[in-house]
């Protein structure tokens, strides 16, 4: 099956919707510490869902994993561990900044690093400047970065306009300074996912050789990468559970709706995984410049997270000028996905 960049854009949009929505079920968890809900969600997003999807889409899954080059397995896992740090701090950025501003800042850094460093490392970036298709894709990436910057500007205006009471009404633990530092770290480390996927290409090729459809070739790669992400998050959450004595959250009590909390955390984790299932499918459709998938993924995440932020009244009390900024940012991000898709189509 040949590449179909605009179908790839659609798949990335679906993954972006999942990524921009996964935190919503966590908002329904009651009387649990953050680490309690995050770990339960992580079991589903990093272990259960990847293995189930890979087993359903990859014939001879264990043979693929055992025959894969050791270097591919190791580097996929190592980059997964580093990306896990980004995922961990990403969850914290939601606590301190809310969905709109937290996503914009963290993913701004993630977009630039995750999109441009892989082709720079392989030498493909220079060649792109000589081709119309490559120039178009790079223009789309620049438009995406501009959209992220505009969203960040809207977030700064919102920070200046709202009273402390209004901020905490929408975001209970709002802390701008702490949230910015956490978001920067999350964005830098989350870019390691792009490197992990590149390291896992031999695994994807083996999956196709064993009969997997090209559209699903990345599902076994995510089994390895997300195991690394789980390692980081498991260690940190267990540390917090022990330090704060919050492991008791998992036991029956009168203060917490136990079944509800387990269910919502599992749903959040499963939705979170779907972003990478669709991302992996989308990369197979982007053709020559498949690394541009990362920019598309980030753009759609910010679009949908900001739409949710508007619907959940995180921007309540903001001025008309600030709302115009966030709408303009969303429009730029949507435009960037069209430009990138067109650039990849030209390359075909």
List the SSEs and their pairings.
Elements: H1 5-21, H2 34-57, H3 61-67, H4 70-122, H5 124-128, H6 132-161, H7 164-170, H8 176-190, H9 192-199, H10 201-209, H11 219-244, H12 258-283, H13 293-311, H14 320-347
Q: What's the total helix number?
A: 14
Largest sheet: none
Give the strand content: under 5%
From the alpha-carbon coordinates, what is the Rg to the nearest angstrom? 20 Å
Mean pLDDT: 84
Count of folded domains: 1
The separation of the N and C termini measures 13 Å
The portion of residues assigned to helices is: over 70%
SSE order, one letter for each helix or strand: HHHHHHHHHHHHHH
Describe this structure in words.
The chain is an all-alpha fold. It has one domain. 79% of the residues lie in helices and 0% in strands. It has 14 helices and no strands. Helix 1 packs across helix 13 (293-311), helix 4 (70-122) packs across helix 6 (132-161) and helix 6 packs parallel to helix 13. The protein is globular, with a radius of gyration of 20 Å. The model has no long low-confidence stretch (mean pLDDT 84).
Can you summarize this structure?
This protein is an all-alpha fold and 348 residues long.
Considering the chains and any ligands shown, give keywords for the structure:
single chain; 348 residues; mainly alpha; 14 helices; 0% strand
């Amino acid at each position: 099956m040949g590449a179909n960049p605009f179908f790839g854009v659609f798949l990335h949009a679906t993954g972006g919707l999942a990524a921009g929505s996964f935190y919503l079920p966590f908002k329904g968890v009651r009387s649990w510490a953050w680490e309690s809900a995050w770990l339960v969600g992580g079991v589903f997003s990093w272990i259960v869902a990847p293995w189930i999807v890979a087993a359903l889409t990859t014939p001879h899954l264990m043979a693929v994993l055992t025959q894969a080059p050791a270097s591919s397995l190791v580097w996929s896992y190592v980059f997964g561990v580093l990306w896990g740090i980004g995922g961990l701090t990403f969850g914290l950025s939601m606590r301190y900044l809310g969905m709109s501003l937290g996503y914009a800042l963290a993913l701004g850094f993630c977009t630039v690093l995750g999109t441009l460093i892989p082709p720079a490392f392989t030498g493909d970036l220079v060649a792109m400047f000589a081709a119309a298709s490559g120039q178009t894709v790079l223009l789309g990436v620049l438009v995406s970065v501009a959209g992220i910057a505009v969203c960040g500007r809207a977030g700064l205006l919102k920070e200046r306009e709202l009273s402390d009471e209004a901020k905490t009404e929408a975001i209970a633990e709002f802390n701008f300074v702490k949230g910015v530092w956490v978001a920067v770290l999350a964005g830098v480390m989350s870019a390691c996912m792009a490197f992990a996927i590149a390291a896992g290409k031999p695994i994807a090729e083996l999956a196709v050789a064993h009969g997997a459809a090209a559209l699903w070739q990345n599902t076994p790669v995510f089994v390895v990468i997300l195991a690394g992400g789980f390692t980081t998050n498991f260690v940190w959450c267990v540390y917090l559970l022990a330090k704060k004595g919050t492991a008791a959250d998992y036991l029956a009590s009168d203060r917490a709706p136990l079944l509800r909390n387990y269910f919502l955390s599992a749903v959040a984790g499963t939705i979170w995984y779907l972003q990478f299932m669709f991302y992996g499918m989308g990369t197979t459709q982007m053709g020559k410049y498949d690394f541009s998938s990362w920019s598309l993924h980030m753009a759609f995440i910010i679009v949908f997270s900001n739409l949710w932020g508007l619907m959940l009244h995180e921007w309540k009390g903001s001025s008309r000028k600030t709302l115009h900024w966030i709408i303009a940012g969303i429009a730029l991000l949507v435009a960037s996905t069209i430009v990138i898709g067109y650039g990849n189509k030209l390359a075909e």
